[in-house]
Amino acid sequence: MTFLAKRYSVLPGFGLSLGYAIFWLGLIVLLPLTALILTSSQLGLPLFWETVSAPRVVASLQLSFGTAALAALINCVMGFLVAWVLVRYRFPGKRFVDALVDLPFALPTAVAGIALTTIYAPNGWLGQYLEPWGLKVAFTPTGIVIALIFVSLPFVVRTVQPVLEDLEGELEEAATCLGAGRWQIFRRVIFPAVLPALMTGTAMAFARATGEFGSVIFIAGNIPLVSEIAPLIIISKLEQFDFLGATAVAVVMLMLSFSVLFAINLLQWWTSRRHGMK
Amino acid sequence: MAMQHTLTTERAWVRYALTTLALLFLLVFLLVPLVSVFWEALAKGWDLYADALVEYEAWQAIKLTLIAAAIAVPLNLVFGVAAAWAIARFEFRGKSLLTTLIDLPFSVSPVVAGLMYILLFGSHGWLGGWLSEHNIQIIFAIPGIVLATVFVTFPFVARELIPLMQAQGQDEEQAAIVLGASGFAAFWHVTLPNIKWGLLYGVILTNARAMGEFGAVSVVSGHIRGETNTIPLHVEILYNEYNFVGAFACASILALLALVTLAVKTLVEWRMERQHEASLVRTQQAREALV
Q1: Which DSSP helix (H) or strand (E) runs through A204?
Q2: Does A100 sit within 8 Å of B31, measured CB to CB?
Q3: Which residues of A touch B273 (CB under 8 A)?
Q4: CA–CA dist B205, A154 (Å, integer)
Q5: Which CATH architecture fits B35-290?
Q6: Between the CA atoms of A215, A219, A221 and A223, what dihedral angle is there, to the nearest 10 degrees?
Q7: Out of B40, B91, B105, whose CB is closest to A29?
Q8: Beta-carbon separation of A119 and B112 below 8 A
Q9: In a domain, A48, yes or no
Q10: Residue B30 and residue A90 in contact, taking contact as beta carbons nearer than 8 Å
Q11: 3-state helix, strand, coil in chain B (%, to 5)
C-alpha cells in the first residue's frame, strides 16, 4: 500500500489503529453511502430528473437551503457578537453563559423542536406578543428559520472564539499608538484576522442546518409547497415505498451538502496557509 | 484579564450595549426554550409528571434508548481513539482524506443517513435478501437503531481527541518507548492520562447525541410502540397526540441529560486549564533549578 505509506516513527500501533479506523469507517460510512449511490444509478437520468424537478421537491429543496442560508447569515452576525462579548468583556455569570452556548449541541433536536413550537405558538410565551403585530412564527417558514438558528448557533461561536482569544494585543496597541480609532482598528486589524474563521463557522452552520429534521418538523407545520422541508419529502416517499424517489432527493441533498463541505475544507486550507507562515 | 486596557477597548456604553444585545439574544434563543421544557413538564403538577415517566411505553422507550447508547458509545469510543492515534501520531499520505471522511457524517442529513441503511439492509435493500434468508432483522429492530446512532455520532470522539493529541505532541510517548515500555504500556500510562479529560467530554457528548438522535432513528425504527421507540420518538408520538405533559416529561429527561453534559464540559475545561497552568509552573521551577 504505497498510498498509505507512512514515514518512520518509533511509536507502535500504526497498522492496527489505522486498519481498524479504516475498517470501521468503511462499514459505517462508506458501505451505506455506496448503497445509496448504487441505488440512484438504477434510476436512470430521465426518471431522476423527473423526480427531482417535481414542483413539491423543488419547493422543499429551495425551502431547506433558503432557510438554512438565512439562519446561517443571522448566526454569522449574532454568533460573532456573542463570541466577541464572551472573549472581550467581563460580566457576571460569564462561565454559565459560555456553557449555555453549547446547549444546542447537547439538547436533542426533537426536544428543541417541541419547546420552540410551544413558545412561538399563538398562545405561547413569545407567540402571544408577536401575534397582535401580525407576526406568525410557528407553522410558517419563519419558524423554520428560528429552529435552524437555535441548532446552528454554536458552530459560529465556537469557531470564532478561539481565534479572537489568540489575537495579539500588541497589534491593536500599535494601531492605537499610530492614531487609529476603535472602529478603524476593528475594521482593519481585528476583522480581517477573524474573517476566515467566521466564514468557516458560518459554512458549518449552513451545512448543519440544511439537513436538520428533528427540530424543524414540529414548528414547520409541514404544508406542501410552503413549509415542507426536503428531509420530510424523503420520509413521505419512504412511507409510500418509493425508495427510488427518496434516493433521488437524497442524492441531490448529499451533492449540495458535499459542495459545502468542500468549500469548508478549502477555507480551512486557506486559513492554515495564512497562519502557517509565522 | 485583571485590568482593562483603557486604550484597547471600546467606550463603556458600547461595551454595555453589545453585552446586553448578546445576552438578550442568548436569553430568547437558548435559555427560554430550555426553561420552557421543564415548565411545561411540571405544568400540571408533580404527580402527573411522575405518572408520565412510569408509564409502560415510556419505560420501554427509556430502556431501548439506554441499550442503544450502551452499544453505540463504546463502539465510537474505540474507533475515535484508534483514529486519533493513527492521525495525530503518524505522518502518512491520504491523512487529510481520512480526516475529511471521518467528518462526513456531520454533513449528511440524519434522514439521508437512515435512508442509506434502509437501502442497504431493508427488505428491498442490497443485503436484504441475504439477511432474511438468515433470519437477521436489522431495519425496524434494535440493530438498525444502533447502526443509525453510531453513524450520527461517528465523528465526535475522534474530533475531540485529534486536535488535543496533536497539540500535546509525541515526545512523552517516544521517551516511554525508548526507555523500553511496550506500546500498550505507553498508551495506558502516558497517553491516556494526558487525554482523559478530552476523552471524557467526547464520550459524554457522543452519549448525549446518541440518546437524543431523532431523524436517523425515526427512519429505521418503524415506530413500533413499546418495541422500537426511543425516548425522542416517544416524545414525538405523545406530542402529536396532544399529550403535552407526557411529551415534555419525557423531553425533560433528555434536557437534564443535556445539562449534565454541559456541566461535565465546563468541569473538563476547568481541569484542562489547571493542568496547563500546573505544567507551566513545573517548567518555570525546572528552569530556575537549572540556573
Answers
A1: helix A191-210
A2: yes
A3: none
A4: 14
A5: Orthogonal Bundle (1.10)
A6: -60
A7: B105
A8: no
A9: no
A10: no
A11: 80, 0, 20
Could you give the CA distance from residue B191 to residue B198 in angstroms, rounded to a whole number?
12
> Are residues A152 and A124 both part of a single domain?
yes
A110 vs B208: CB contact, 8 Å cut-off? no
In a domain, A52, yes or no: no
Q: How many CB atoms lie within 10 A of CB B272?
A: 14
> Cβ(B161)–Cβ(B206) under 8 Å?
no
Nine-digit cell at B92? Answer: 502518512
Same domain as A240, residue A113: yes
Nearest to A14 by CA among B163, A22, B180, B154: A22
- B276 C-beta neighbours (distance < 10 Å), count: 10
Domain that holds residue A129: 57-276
The answer to whether A213 touches B109, Cβ cutoff 8 Å, is yes
pLDDT tens digits, residue range B275-286?
Answer: 888 888 888 888
Residue A256: its chain B contacts at CB < 8 A?
Answer: none
**Separation CA B64–CA B213 (nearest Å):** 13
> How far apart are the C-alpha atoms of B264 and A91, rounded to whole Å?
22
Q: What is the ipTM of this complex?
A: 0.88
Q: How would DSSP label each residue in A20-35?
A: HHHHHHIIIIIHHHHH
Say which of B10, B11, B251 has its CB closest to residue A111. Answer: B251
- Cα separation, B72 vs B64, in Å, equals 12
Cα–Cα distance between A228 and A62 in angstroms, integer?
A: 10
Report pLDDT digits (tens) over A204-246.
899 889 989 999 999 988 888 888 999 999 999 998 989 999 9
CB B47 within 8 A of CB B245: no
Q: Do A205 and A259 fall within a single domain?
A: yes
Q: C-alpha distances in angstroms, B113 versus A51, A54, B32, B151, B158?
A: 20, 23, 31, 7, 19
- Are A172 and B8 an interchain contact pair (Cβ–Cβ within 8 Å)? yes
Say whether B43 sits in a helix, a strand or coil: coil
Angle at A63 between CA A59 and CA A66, to 5 degrees: 130
Query: Is B147 within 8 Å of A254 when comparing Cβ atoms?
Result: no
What residues in A contact B36, CB-CB < 8 Å?
115, 118-119, 125
Domain spans of chain B? 35-290
What pLDDT, in 10s, does the model give residues A120-134?
998 889 988 888 888
Q: How far is CA A20 from the centre of its chain?
A: 29
Report the SS3 class of residue B75: helix
The whole-model pTM stands at 0.89
Q: For chain A, give the percent of residues with pLDDT over 70.
A: 96
